[in-house]
Amino acid sequence: MHVTRRSLHLRLSLFYFAYFLMLGGYAPFFGLYLKSLGFASFEIGTLLALVPVVRSFVPALWAWAADHQGERRHLVRWTTAGATVACAGLLLGSGFWWLFVVLLALNIFWCAALPLVEATTFGLLKGRLGDYGRIRVWGSLSFILAVLALGPAFDWSGVGVLPWALLMLFALMAGAAWLLPSDRMPAHHGEHVPIGRVVRRPEVVALFAACFLMSLAHGPYNSFYSIHLVELGYSKTSLSWLWALSVVAEVGVFLWMPFILRRFSIPNVIAFSLGCAVVRFLMIGWAAQYPVVAAGAQLLHAATFGAHHAAALAAIHHFFQGRHASRGQALYTGVGFGAGGAAGVFLSGWMWDHVGPRATFGFGAAVAMVALAIVLAWLRMPRIAHAGA
């Protein structure tokens, strides 16, 4: 059945909206929920690290399954349904080992969705970053909606109701997955190149190293940012506005990314984002008690996540073509958000208690600086000619 461009955009936008609505319920508040259960910082770090640990290898297995099926949509439908069932386990217990098992199962299913949908989106749009930005922005808007609605709600009711909210949000995501367009993967002229040869290219190694280190640098932010601000005296409502501010900045970057990549090369965009990460994490660690500094640090999210993620996705699409697209996205997720994120969360959980917030966020800044050096030395790529198509 023929699908119009408008219908294609609508179906993809709906999934991004539902996925990031769910993420807006999880990312800012789940650490606070674990804190409310009385867990120590290392236990919180361990449970939160299950997300990136699973993403370090499981998306590659789902990508392999998608490559053999020849369609990603079927897997996205069933894995999002599985994640919803697993999420219901959060309602049945709150002990450490029970949550460990539930979160492990939840993330095995959850981690499949976004890499497969990103590969589908770039494939169906033929890499047009302009269209991608207009679709992906709906995810950013839904994230803002979630944090602005849930922050005041948790100030009123307490964060203990979070599992019920997450169950509803996961169910919405699973429903949106059934409306995704078909994505039968055609043959591609570049598929004869073995994926191992692509991965061993120096510029690809540099790209993955930068993605790994950027996620490692975000470990303190992803694990303890909300806890840090609440301990500094911010309310959950104020926290919600700061999270929303970061995503507002991200929205602007996604809309301007085609123009940016026509003017600047991918390595330059990634290098700039890493430089901003150095500044951002020092601001959060050393001066977040000042609201104007906290707000300024959140505006830098436009670079440290928005610009970095969009540029990295464009690079992955450039290097991994045809049926390698799913595995390229899985490698990006596994190396960056997976291995890098897991290392960052684990180290942050230990450092938070032993050296304190300032040194922990300073560690993130130092890691970003190392990544910046790698990008400047080894990452070479052309500008994206069709970025605005």
In short:
By secondary structure, this protein is an all-alpha fold.
Number of domains: 1
CATH architectural category = Up-down Bundle
Q: What is the CATH topology assignment?
A: Growth Hormone, Chain: A
How much of the residues is beta strand, in percent? under 5%
**E-strand count:** 0
Q: Structural class, from secondary structure content?
A: mainly alpha
Q: Please describe the biggest sheet, giving its number of strands, its sense, and whether it closes into a barrel.
A: none
Mean of all residue-level pLDDT scores? 89
Query: Could you list the spans in which at least 5 consecutive residues all have pLDDT below 50?
Result: none
Measured on Cα atoms, how large is the radius of gyration?
20 Å
Please write the string of helix (H) and strand (E) elements.
Answer: HHHHHHHHHHHHHHHHH
Q: Which CATH class applies here?
A: Mainly Alpha
Per the principal axes of the C-alpha atoms, what is the gross shape? globular
Describe the structure.
Helix content is 80%, strand content 0%. It has 389 residues and is an all-alpha fold. Helix 5 packs antiparallel against helix 6 and helix 13 (266-287) runs antiparallel to helix 14. It is globular. The mean pLDDT is 89.
